[in-house]
Amino acid sequence: MIPIIPLVVVGGALVAVHKRRQQARLRKKLQHQPVRSGEGVSQQSRAPKPPVNIKRLLRDTVDALLFTDRQQLQDAMDPVSQQAHEQQLKKSRREMQLSLGAVGVASLASFYPLLTPVAVLAVLYLMRETFKLVWKDFKNGRYLSLYLIGAIVTLGLIATGHLVLAIFVGLMEGFFARIINNLEDNSQGRLVNVFSSHPEQVWVVQSGVELQVAFHDLQVGDQVRVNAGEVMPVDGRIVEGFGQVDQHILTGESQPVDKEVGDEVFASTLLLSGRLTVEVMTAGEDTVAAKISQLLNETQSYKDTVILRGRKIADNFIPVKLGIAALTVPLLGPSAGLAVMFADLGGGLGISGSMSVMTYLQILARQQILIKDGRVFEALRAVDTVVFDKTGTLTQEQPTLGNIHAVDGFTEREVLRLAAAAEYRQPHPVARAILARAEAEHLDLPAVEETSYEVGYGIKVGVEGQIVRVGSARFLQREGIALPDSIAAIRQHAEADSHSLIYVAVDDQLAGLLEMEPTIRPEACEMIQVLKQRGMDVYIISGDHEAPTRNMAKKLGVEHYFAETLPENKADLVKQLRDEGRFVCFVGDGINDAIALKAAQVSVSLKGASTAATDTAQIIFMDGTLKNLLPLFELVDEFEDTMRRNKVVAFAPGIMTIGGVFFLHFGVLTSMLILYSSILGELVNIFWPLAKHQEALPELPLEDEGETHVVEKPREDL
């Protein structure tokens, strides 16, 4: 186990560099500018620099080993994760103190034999993570592995009295076992259970009086009162009131929906404005959200079956190495047999594969790509089909103002000018779309004299001595303004294309209609074309009607699409593609996408999506856009090249050693020197990508006193 020594030296050096890094950053505050993915780097980072900044490379290596940047992204996604991480750090410090104490006890046992039993217990403590992995392998029917060999060697060192060597081996074995566990996302409990978010108490209307009752006591037919800002506790039908409901978490719709008496509402959606009385249709485990949650928890996850190839290859060659060594002893003697044992036939792949994953997790984290499960690298390489959810994934939150329909003598320019004046300074996406169009046409907006905003329906303002109303058809009807029959064709056409209409009235007369179209993400078209150039098939899944889905697919150059798809059927379509032999990557952002995300071999979501989607997805784009999908696949290709070099470095020296033992009479010393050289080569191959990407990737700033870990990039669609 002498090969461990160089790794111990390297590890010690990296820890020292990490400590110096913290001191240096207290003296000099680094200035970083947010860099949008795909837009290059800041002017400062473009300045001429040495080919490889050794100090930066060492810092990056430490960050990769400690998962620093990846953890920062996870903390940015979930404050609970940050609390758990802080607790884990405290636990790690305690374990480090115990480990150092164990090293001290083992060293003293060499001089004071009475401490030997305590030293043995200390070594076993250091090996606890390795023993856990051995037991896990046994339960999975894998009886011969590098972990088992490591445990046997450690126990052999204890039995022969080499406690100091045993303690170093125990330290390294435990360290790498911890790395393996961190690379595998075992947080099955993190899969969101939407049903658990219901309130404990709800208000029920009985005989005109509001009574507070326990949520679990609700019955079908009860009338629940829901106020603005509250989450809908049940599926039901509105019997009183009107308001605006955000259904994005359930349906993926980017725009809030107006609801009034007779309309249905669903549990887990948010009432943005108004006050509703809802008759309970389903509650508890029978709601749509709860059923999706149950299906999500019952769906088999593909990632549970994926393992790191390096470890598998290394384990498969253990019998080969042991067999050659056993044959060598009677032919050439025990010394030659021991020399063969130093021949590394892929044994380092179990570690080098894992450390290569760590390296690329670091690179991807710097590019604002959070990989929650290190095993997904293997699956990404096999993807041949990418499926996009349409609403909220291929489209942005802010719509685009398309056609302007002027009526009754008004011009399109007048309708736009008055609507923009009314919506001036309103924060919602529709207002921003109207103002953007007015700015593009260089309109001078008149001053607004008075404002009356009815949340959920529209706005009424005084402009140049006229009363201008902008809002929904219901809003104008409530204001007593008649809608002429001449606009029926406009409404029918807009409905067929899933476009929403905003009505503009001047005084008591309809002036025009603004047609709002979904805004396709600016990066979507180019991204899809490059995916197709890579030989991938692209599909779109949408709950919209056939016509708008077909039109979007045509604009993006996508030949395959599924329209009018119910949320519960998305996963079935993904399974259908898998049954055809396809390897599917699904990209989605709604709770209704969560089951499909879990059904796909690879799942991607965006920061800002529903909690169900981001908890389920293996990969999250932290900039909230799709720009990083292509760099993701490119870096996976590069990772594959690194893994191929790992194989060469892992096998070539071992084959050379065995050949040398049989034909050139290599001894133990020569075999050890070849092994040391191969270890150095593996480390260079593992960490070279960090040097290669130094100039291209910005560092995530560490926190100084009172500063946060991550500088978030502004979402371009907000």
TrEMBL record:
Annotated ranges, domain P-type ATPase A: 197-296
Alphabetical UniProt keywords: ATP-binding, Cell membrane, Membrane, Metal-binding, Nucleotide-binding, Translocase, Transmembrane, Transmembrane helix
rRNA-binding as UniProt keyword: no
PROSITE patterns: ATPASE_E1_E2
InterPro entries given in the database record: ATPase_P-typ_cyto_dom_N, ATPase_P-typ_P_site, ATPase_P-typ_transduc_dom_A_sf, ATPase_P-type_domA, HAD-like_sf, HAD_sf, P-typ_ATPase_IB, P_typ_ATPase
Protein's cellular compartments: Cell membrane; Endomembrane system
Membrane-crossing residue ranges in chain numbering: 98-126, 146-171, 318-342, 348-365, 648-667
NCBIfam families on file: ATPase-IB_hvy (TIGR01525), ATPase_P-type (TIGR01494)
Protein name as catalogued: Heavy metal translocating P-type ATPase
Organism per entry: Thiothrix litoralis
